Amino acid sequence: KFDPIPTRDYYALYGVFNSSTEQTVPLPRTGPADKDYEDYVKGLRAREEKLEQTFRAKRDALADRLRVKTPEYLLAVLDVAKLPSEEFYAIMGPDDLNPAIVRQWEAFIFKARESFHPVFAPWHAYAAVGEKDFAAKAAGVYQKLASDGDPSRRVNPLVLQAFVGPPPASMREVARRYGDVFVEIAKAWREVTNAAAANKATAPTTLDPNQEPIRQILFGSNSPASVPNGAVVDIEWFFDEGARVELSKLQAEVDRWIIKAPGAPPHSVILADRPSPKNARVLLRGNPANKGEEVPRQFLAVVAGAERKPFAHGSGRLEMAQAIASSDNPLTARVMVNRVWLHHFGAGLVSTPSDFGTRCEPPSHPELLDWLAARFMAGGWSIMQLHRLIMLSSVYQQTSDENGASAVTDANNRLLGRMSRQRLDFEAMRDSLLFASGELDPQVGGKPVELFTTPFSNRRTVYGYIDRQFLPGVFRVFDFANPDLHAPQRSDTTVPQQALFFMNSPFVADRARALVNRRELQAVSKPSDRIQRLHQILYQRPATAKQVALGLAFLQSARTEPPEPPTRPVLTQWRYGWGEYDATTRRVKSFEALPHFTGEAWQGGAQWPDAKLGWVQLTAEGGHAGNDRQHAAIRRWIAPRDVTVNISGTARHEYQEGDGITARIVSSRAGSLGFWTLHNNKAETKAESIEVKAGDTIDFVVDFHANLNTDMFKWSPVIQSADSTAADATEWNAKKDFGGPPPTPARALTAWESYAQTLLLANEFLFVD
Q: Which residue has the higher pLDDT, 313 or 82?
């Protein structure tokens, strides 16, 4: 924000990306098509066709409603600049004016100002008068438009006719007269199309030459009174809640099929140009409802200079990339070589790798930075050559030993008098553990994998699955970059949790076991020789005599100490399953545990819906009812002792589609404790002073109401012991306690495994020296 980047330049670049859109595309197949792939293609086409048909129907229905309201939208255009952003973006119902359509009309009319527009020329002429002198000058506007003899400036006669007689008193009356003309043309076109349909004509007859330009504004492919083609990715701006939910569900089915279908090929998310790239307009004071001048898509003036030209091809992304990676751009090559230098040395020649602006620190070696940048460009921008150049240099090959003189004059090694020690980041550390144990999977590419669920994956950490909303705590402990923020450089912290991870993590313990079981170690029987082999594997050097003696003493003490008993898994009181509620006995007739846990949900199998158990699913916050009454979703609580409890919670069904769900609380001792029917609403689900004995169950049962349609629900009840003052007062929270199957008890480490884990704890393993 401190650099000379004007607001216009920001919107020039914004226009490039606003003219682009994300697409998910399959990668080319290399092998022949098999049955799985044919089934995938068939299933994908069916889901995409259903999505497209539904979207087209919703879009056409919405367009019909929008054209009827054209007069109201034209009036709303006059108020766009006056609306505060929070009001402009308020949630709209199906019969309210849609803010996105108001913006489209405003943009369309604004665009028509660039050159003489036969339909909207009167609008712009009256708007130019201004509110103060409108009454006095409005009559002259009509006279000037009607008397202009230039054929290239001929106003549409139907629009001009609307202003015959008394002049309009304000721009609002101008908008109303336009609205009347548009409504008449829309009515005429419907009569023509209805007549053509009745006569079974192959195509509707066009309107007369004066009506056709107005019809194109209302019914054309770029009409501001319709949802743009391809806007399914932006449905939240155009459709009401019910349509958004329905389209989102269909899109989710397409995405889920691409991800989980057995024959699905690998896919990539790419950026593609929109069919009709558009320049952006400056948002005055950042208000999306208050648009100012239009700016062309082009590169930054401070870099490109005064002779820069607007981008002319598509969105302009290619031209922008060429401008960035240009030898005339003084920044890009310097930034890139500084990033590579940072990678190898732990610190860049410029200490702020993403800020080369006026407020950054100057480079420690400016001539070296310029020389590397020049060599980088001369070598065809080859990063491989840049790596080779740096790594073969004498400065890279220096020792890390302290130099007595430089330790005083250059304590931070800014002048590179030696090679700084560097600690491995989390990804390199985890990969090093797997490499040392002989388990690292070198496969390149593929889908992301869970890193912290058992059995632990051996894939490289770069392929770990990252959930931005639920980033595992291990990542944060080891300074993993926040995936929601720009992070040019990671911080290095030393906190107790890092050491605790190495001492207590099942992942590290498993690597110690695998390390000891490596074939080259098992082949060595003499303890001192095995210690030497361990040091060679982990530290790439022989052990000293002292280290051998310490290792032997450690092994002896570990053998004499009693082994730690294996930890027992903690069993939660909650169970997750499906079954049937018996209305006659008012109790649950059957209960079967759901067999598959995804890490976030219990369900019938890896694919959802499951071929056998269907849609039934339970998550921490809710779930989905099953396909029939025999497959209701049941969250079961088992009483651990005799106790009186209170039950609380809120059951929600948040969709207009379908007919809703039924939710029940059922006690194995007392029967039904509560019953609620929900459709796009919620209910407090309370039951107080319920007496249970050890082993009794309380079931939270969810069925569809009458038909299987949009039966997702949210319901995470809480059970509390009634006496909150007692020492054994307890709370069982369905959301907090939610989890998968209990882990298998871990086997205690042997003496050699404990020794191997101790060596993995050492700084020598975690630092590049």
A: 313
